[in-house]
Amino acid sequence: MADSLRRLVNTSSFSVLQDKLESWYKDYHVISCDQNLNRCCELVELTSKIQGQLFTILNLTAREGGHYAGVDVLKSRLLPWLGTCFSMATSSVTNDTSLNLIQESVEKERKIRELSASHENDMQKMETQLCSTHLQLDSVKQDLVDAHLQLDNTKNMSATTLLATEDEILQLKAELRAARDQVETYKRKLDVLDDYERQVHLLRDEVSFLTAEKSMLQERLVRSCSPSPLPRQSRPSSPLKSESPTRAQLTNSSRHARLVSRFSDLYAVERLEAQSLLRRYIDDLEMVQRIIFIATVEAFQAAKLAYRQFKLRVRKTLSPSHLGPETLEDSVVDYIVRNLDLYDVQASVNDVINAMNVNPRISFPPEVDFALISSFIRETCRVAFAMQTLDPPLDLAFTSGGELYSDNKYRRSYDSEFTAPLVAYHVWPALVEGDGVIVKGEAVTRRGALWRSRSRSCSPIRSGSPTRTLGFSRSRSPSPGRLSASRL
Q: Where is this region: Disordered (predicted)?
């Protein structure tokens, strides 16, 4: 009996019954009729279960008292109460199971209420968040619409600006082409003007020469026509030099100034162009400058050799028909000055390239050859050939690797060691007239230059690559004997 009473106390059935009654009272006017009836039936069932447990305890207590203990209490209290026609339905489950079910039901209802309350709170929170999210979404949509509008405006402005920029670019390109065409036109006109001025100078020189010759012939004619009492002297066997100057002599000073200026232009313009062209294939600036210097020296050597050969041919052609009044040497030089275009410059260019291919002090990438700077070599050969017609002729100063630096002949390059006394290598040769320097050259001075020059001179000679085999057909200059007598 004590165990049954303890279990009844532990289940707190009456507390649960009281809680249910209070909850029903609070919700009575809120819930529907069916829900009120359900709660009432639930309370009746819970009450009947509690009463069943109490009757069980009553039965056990009466058994413990024996046959006659508690009879008076039952007769005075229980039987009159039962007489009021109250009947208790017998449960189909045991008392322990019924109490467990009641406890589980109470726990479940409490959990359901807690879950319902937390669910309602969560729903309220989610609704609040949903509302705020909807507001943010609307704001983002509005921002997106504004961004699309701004993007469209930017695209329209960019398209307009791009069209305007393209039009400006096309217009600027057209103006640039027109400016280039105009520059080319001006250059052609300037070249034509230079040709005209050159022809004018030549014609003036010819007029001066012809005037002097005419005066001389008139004097000779007057002397031959006038009677002379003196006996006619025999003509001396040795030819006398004519007092009338030739065209070469008349134009010597102007040609001298023009060729010196042209030599300076070779250094300032054509040399830099050749240097820029070579730097595309050779990274070593020293090697590039050595190549250009050797090309210049070889061009002068080839031009001097060609001048001597050309002069011999002209002398051989003019000697049978030469009558005077100028000497044969003056006639030969005058003929060469008048016919500089007969100089076979391409043959000299080929000789220079052949000499450079076997020069041990310079090297070149095998995929290209020295014909890359043939235009520079050609112009240098022409200038050098024309310098041989001067009196006295102009030539390059003698140079050697590791020579003592001279301020009279050279000026140091920007990357030189200004305290070094020896020349490491030459950038440009000096132009001399006799023993006097006309135009200074350029040299690089460094310490240990003599050792460097010896190490370079001792390097093996490189063999010409197949790409350097010259396919030029050496054009031969026309023989002066085949020229018409009118050009002599």
A: 221-251, 456-488
